[in-house]
Specification:
Layout lengths: L10 H21 L4 H6 L13 H5 L4 H29 L1 H19 L3 H15 L1 H25 L26 H7 L6 E4 L5 E3 L4 E7 L7 E5 L3 E6 L1 E4 L6 E2 L4 E5 L16 E8 L2 E3 L13
Antiparallel strand pairs: 1-9, 2-8, 3-4, 3-7, 4-5, 5-9, 6-8, 9-10
Helix pairs in contact: 5-6
Amino acid sequence: MLRVQIDIPHPVETLFLLLATGGVWLWMSWDTPRSDQARASMVPVYQNAEPADGPARQRLGDGGADREARVLSVRSAEDEARRIRIEQAVLARREEILRYELKVIEDAAARSGDSVSVRAAREKLLALLADERTAEERLLQTLREMWEAEGLTATVAVGSPGDVHVLWPVEPDEGLSATFLDAGYEQRFGIPHNAIDIPVPQGSAIRSAADGVVDKIVDNGLGYSYIIVKHDGFATLYGHASVFFVAEGDTVRQGDVLAASGGMPGTPGAGTLTTGPHLHFEVIVEGERIDPLTVLPARTTVR
């Protein structure tokens, strides 16, 4: 009888390799013919995407839920990448931002005198200039507070707004210090400016731009503080508030006083990204911030 002997080096390792290869082949064979409906059943359905009896249910049969999950994942990754780029841009300007704000304080002292609050704000900024790590932490904290405000307004400003008409929440006697998507602002701070900045003396009355309900009051101490008011199909945000005169859930009429303005570096409500004493004003329609000048009475120029 003829015998054929095959000598296989490392027989145990070879056996495991064959088993692994066979396992992969079986998995691919099982996965390939699976229907889109079976694939979709493994993807979580997002409750807020659409009603259960709407198009979302119909898409389960053609792989739509899978595609939707992929789109949401891509959007999340894009948002995270955008935020990382903005954080890097802001941190790269750390010293420039702090020195600009120090100049704002010195200018304020020259105009109105070297008050206790001005001296305290100056000391805080000088300390941040000397402490790079703390300065970066404060800048990033302000960014996150601003992004939180962005997320909150997106959920409030829903529905069909119709015609949006608002009045000035503070008097623009000094024009604007920053416009909507202001290139100079982004160059200085490293972030897009989806609002207008209206310079007013610290502590000026902030009035509701339209009838509505106070949806959110966020007091971040020396960080970025703000009020969100929900109107009929749109919302307004009032940033750098230093003192609040209303509560969440209050119904307000156009012109009612909501808060006192802030914005002076180193003071309550200002945060570490501010152009000095002013009101940061946003108008949000269908989840998107629009240029407030398109719905405000024409009364001002850029400073």
